[in-house]
Design goal:
Blueprint (H helix, E strand, L loop, with lengths): L11 E5 L24 E6 L5 E7 L2 E3 L2 H7 L7 E8 L2 E7 L23 E5 L2 H6 L2 E3 L1 H6 L9 E6 L5 E9 L4 E4 L3 H7 L7 E8 L5 E6 L5
Parallel strand pairs: 2-6, 9-13
Antiparallel strand pairs: 1-5, 2-3, 3-4, 5-6, 7-12, 8-11, 9-10, 10-11, 12-13
């Protein structure tokens, strides 16, 4: 097990774990000068557990599934989180216990890709996908990941392989078990030049308040 050290030359801030942890996670006001001066950003948190957390930053607020985050890091009252900003909306995280000692986490097999176990499905740009301006999510996938249980019109984040992101909405039909990405999908298709016959992988990186998908286009080889 390794303990990663904070680079003192990089900007960083701390977040103590108190009774209201997760209710409103705010970045310190003075720290905001290090970030892009726009709202609705997607950032990456690299955890000492070797997990990657894609989170949304809205103003000073970091939005994430903090309940699951607390479980993943065995957080307790008075533990301390330290966030180091490396650049390009990437943070490295260290976790300290109430005595100020860095927590150690078991590292997974380095031969296994970090995103290998993320749920995913393959999709193809069909005539109906283009005509209806929506992307159907396989119902088995939606149920197994609990996307089918999300509130209708839940916001989702669509991210391409360059790290650019778009906001869309998860929709459901009441008359039959259909879950799809609706509003926002048209813009994503246009901006990423998705055309009839293109195939791609939809990987669910985060399934918190705003689920995040990484869309990876498949390259056809002659």
């Amino acid at each position: 097990m390794k303990v990663r050290m904070i680079n003192q030359d990089r900007p960083h801030f701390i977040k103590p774990i108190n009774d209201d942890f997760g209710k409103e996670f705010l970045i310190p006001l003075k720290f905001m000068r290090h970030l892009e001066p726009t709202n609705d950003l997607t950032a990456l948190i690299r955890s000492p557990t070797s997990k990657n957390y894609y989170v949304r930053i809205d103003g000073r607020k970091i939005e994430n599934n903090w309940a699951q985050f607390a479980v993943d890091h065995d957080l307790h009252l008075h533990d301390i989180l330290m966030f180091e900003y490396t650049d390009n909306m990437i943070f490295k995280l260290m976790v300290f216990d109430s005595d100020g000692l860095a927590k150690e986490f078991r590292q997974p097999d380095e031969d296994v890709p970090k995103e290998a176990n993320k749920p995913k499905f393959k999709a193809i740009m069909t005539p109906s996908t283009l005509r209806d301006n929506r992307l159907l999510i396989p119902i088995a996938f939606a149920r197994s990941t609990n996307l089918a249980d999300k509130v209708d019109n839940t916001e989702v984040i669509l991210m391409n392989e360059k790290g650019q992101h778009w906001t869309a909405h998860l929709k459901k039909k009441r008359s039959r078990p259909v879950v799809y990405i609706g509003i926002g999908w048209t813009r994503f298709m246009a901006d990423n030049d998705l055309k009839k016959g293109n195939s791609f992988v939809m990987k669910l990186l985060d399934n918190g308040v705003r689920p995040t998908f990484l869309i990876q286009k498949e390259v056809l080889h002659a």
